[in-house]
Write a structure and sequence with these properties.
alpha+beta, elongated, 113 residues, three-stranded antiparallel sheet, 5 helices, DNA-binding, Arc Repressor Mutant, subunit A, homodimer, 3 strands
Chain lengths: 113, 113
DNA sequence: TGCAAACATTATTATATTTGAATATAAAAG
DNA sequence: CTTTTATATTCAAATATAATAATGTTTGCA
């Protein structure tokens, strides 16, 4: 199974607005490069560069249809990540219970700032 | 609610091996800076830099305990992301069903390579 | 009051990422 | 075979990120 390190690396690869946009679209189905050009407001070479990066890390792959390259999702972690990015999180995590222990000390002291 | 763009930005911030390591530890409870120094094999200033970055983006916060800073998790998206990073994904997503349609064409053509 | 512990900040350097421009390739059409 | 369409690759410039080294700040305590 894939190491945590590899998954963090993958996270770095997909943590880019355009690439997330690409992956969101691919979740809805197969798309070719010129499809992406339509709704991503960037040049064709730049689309290809982002696709190449995602391919290099095994996130996506493609089929050929004549001279079209039909891209699709390959890495099963992607839908889970996109789902979390679309989930609504409100508020903050609860402050830790009173007096938890670190290696060096206990608190409460003062709230910061 | 937080925009998708902001969440992608957050993803970029946490997509670093050391910061993921820090967040993993914080899920188990409160930790002070010297606690981190023990198991992260990096200098104290570097620990502080990573913590400062996570703080700046609201991912973590801290309480004071004398001269210790007791860090804890603040952003509720973090546990969900860590959970996915630890989940075991095997194989690949199923190839798209026969003959899906892009704006420009249909396939099947040939499988790549 | 003065010192040491715990932590933060700044500046510098090294390296990686992103984009745009130019060019290349491969397949289909003519 | 030549042209066109669809897409990829390469290179260079601009920018961002990461680590290290040096220094600063705050708090508790002798």
């Amino acid at each position: 199974m894939r190491s945590l390190g590899k998954k963090v690396e993958l996270l770095r690869i997909i943590a880019h607005p355009i690439r997330i946009n690409i992956l969101e679209e691919l979740i809805t189905g197969v798309k070719c490069v010129s499809d992406f050009e339509e709704f991503l407001d960037i040049s064709q070479p730049n689309v290809s560069q982002h696709l190449a990066l995602l391919r290099r890390y095994g996130v996506i792959d493609y089929y050929m249809d004549g001279r079209l390259r039909c891209y699709f999702l390959r890495d099963p972690i992607i839908p889970d990540i996109i789902k979390i990015l679309k989930k609504d999180y409100m508020g903050e995590l609860p402050a830790p219970a009173c007096c938890p222990v670190t290696k060096k000390g206990k608190y409460p002291g003062e709230r910061r700032r």
